[in-house]
Amino acid sequence: MATLVQLVDDVVANKFEIREGSLTIGRHPNCNIQIQDSAVSGNHAKLEAKRNEHFPQFLEYFLSDLDSTNGTYINEKKLTKRERLRHNDVVRIAWNTFKFIDDKEAELERTTHIIPSN
C-alpha cells in the first residue's frame, strides 16, 4: 500500500491512502485530497497509480502539476512534466509538505541483495 503523508513541522497531520487509478490534489471541494490553503490552486496536481507492465503485482506512482500558480515539487525539484514518485520522496504542493510512502517498494529495497560482478 502507498500513502501520502502530510507533514506540519515534521509531524504527521494527515494520511491519504493511494489506490490504483488517479486522484486530484487541490483547494477545490471536488479534489480527492483537499488542502485548505490559499497558496494551493483549485486543481493543483494529479497523482496516478498504474500497474507496472512487467510486474503487475506492483503499482507505479506518477505526479503531475496541473498548471498551478505556486508549483508542485518532488524533493524540491519543480515539476515541469509528469514524474515518477519513489518511496520516501518529499512532495511539496505550494507550501504544503508531504512524504510519499510505498510499503511494497520499501520491502523490495530491504530484500534486494546485489551481488557484485567480477
Supply the key terms.
118 residues; mainly beta; Tumour Suppressor Smad4; six-stranded antiparallel β-sheet
Structure description:
The chain is mainly beta and 118 residues long. The protein has a single domain, classed as Tumour Suppressor Smad4. Helices cover 8% and strands 47% of the residues. The chain contains one helix and eleven strands. The protein has one helix at residues 103-111, and strands at residues 2-8, 11-18, 21-26, 33-34, 45-51, 59-65, 72-74, 77-78, 83-85, 90-93, 96-102. The strands form two sheets. It has a six-stranded antiparallel β-sheet.
Query: Oligomer, anyone?
Result: single chain
Number of DSSP E strands: 11
How far do the termini sit from each other? 37 Å
Query: What pattern of helices and strands is seen along the backbone?
Result: EEEEEEEEEEEH
Number of helices: 1
The strand line-up of the biggest sheet is 2-1-11-10-7-8
**What is CATH's topology name?**
Tumour Suppressor Smad4
Largest sheet: 6 strands, antiparallel
Give unreliable regions as ranges. Answer: none
Strand content: over 45%
Described by the principal axes of the CA atoms, the overall outline is: globular
CATH architecture: Sandwich
| Mean pLDDT over all positions | 91
Computed structural class: mainly beta
- By CATH reckoning, the class would read Mainly Beta
* Relative helix content: under 10%
Radius of gyration: 15 Å
Domain count: the total is 1
Protein name: FHA domain-containing protein
InterPro entries: Cell_Proc_Reg/RNA_Proc, FHA_dom, SMAD_FHA_dom_sf
Domain FHA: 23-79
